[in-house]
Amino acid sequence: MDDGRMDLHRHGSRKFPNAGLLASSRERAWSGVAAELRSHPGGDLPAMVPTQMEVTLATRRCPGAFVSRKGAGIRQRTAVEAGTIWLCPVGVGEDDINISAPLEDVLHIYLPSDRFASLADAYGDARVRADAVRYLADVDDPLIRQVGLVILGELLRESSAGRMMVEAAALTLTARIAQAHGHDGPDLPSGADEGIRCPARIRRAIEFMQDNLDRNLTVSEIAEIACLSPFHFARTFKRATGKTPHAFVSAERLQRARKLLAQPSTSMSEIALRSGFSGQAAFGTAFKRVVGCTPGEFRKLVSGTGA
């Protein structure tokens, strides 16, 4: 094996000393790219300053698991979903890395810095550099995700033309990272480095709100689930749904109340509590203000017993 491929694999063994190695390209003849499929226990990881580009792709959802890390002074906390992507560029020192719970089937792809330099030489563009990539988590990039899955498929089951496919895929991956995620790449919406473009974060927030309508929810708590600052979460949520988080929760609570009112055996006090209201009086006032009738009148209407 040449020293270049060996250096790429050494990075994984240094950064993930306690992780299980499920598959590796170490014995493959791949040039300019390496890949590993690992399982990770919960806990802290050693601080690292990578000398190659690392692309990480979670291939399955790990409920309740978060990856927290800090690089270049940027703190990130990301829920682990199928398809979650992290980028760790050359020269960005990572520290304070923590995995909250065990992770299964995480793909790590390593690209040498000279792969970026080769592209820069070929196209005469000095802006294409491995150290010009942003330090990002929860990247919403279907192309990177698809290329990663192509490499994973060949890693797990070698084919006759697999090396050619992987090396072409690695070139596409390098070009995409340089084009879309470099500091001088296309302008992004304000706050995009925190994942504002990623709809998965908003979906997680919505699911959390819907599962906890009976609780006193705060924007800070919901923003933490979305791995965004409260300010950026509130702005992004409004942009994605057309409602503020408060208005969304209020509408969802009243929708739940309507469904429960259709169940004659459920008392008004229980409906109020399960719909997140402090009591039956507050529930009745809010319901009438929005729906136009009292909860009792609505129940008679849906049950067909009203006048």
Q: Please give the count of helices.
A: 11
- The count of β-strands is 10
Helix content range: 40-55%
Shape, principal axes of CA atoms: elongated
- Secondary-structure element series: HEEEEEEEEEHEHHHHHHHHH
* N→C terminal distance: 85 Å
The CATH homologous superfamily of the largest domain is named: Jelly Rolls
Q: Determine the mean pLDDT.
A: 85
Report the radius of gyration as a whole number of Å.
Answer: 25 Å
* Beta-strand fraction estimate: 15-25%
CATH topology of the largest domain: Jelly Rolls
Largest sheet: 6 strands, antiparallel
Name given to the CATH architecture of the largest domain: Sandwich
Low-confidence stretches: 186-197
Summed up, the domain count is 2
The helix-and-strand class reads alpha+beta
Strand order of the largest sheet: 1-2-9-4-7-10
In the CATH scheme, the class of the largest domain would be Mainly Beta
What does this structure look like?
By secondary structure, this protein is of the alpha+beta class. The protein folds into two domains: 3-186, Jelly Rolls (Sandwich), CATH 2.60.120; 199-303, Homeodomain-like (Arc Repressor Mutant, subunit A, Orthogonal Bundle), CATH 1.10.10.60. Helix content is 44%, strand content 18%. It is built from eleven helices and ten strands. The chain has a six-stranded antiparallel sheet with strand order 1-2-9-4-7-10, sandwiched between helices. A four-stranded antiparallel sheet has the order 3-8-5-6, with no helix packed on it. The protein is elongated and about 75 Å long. Mean pLDDT is 85; it is low at 186-197.
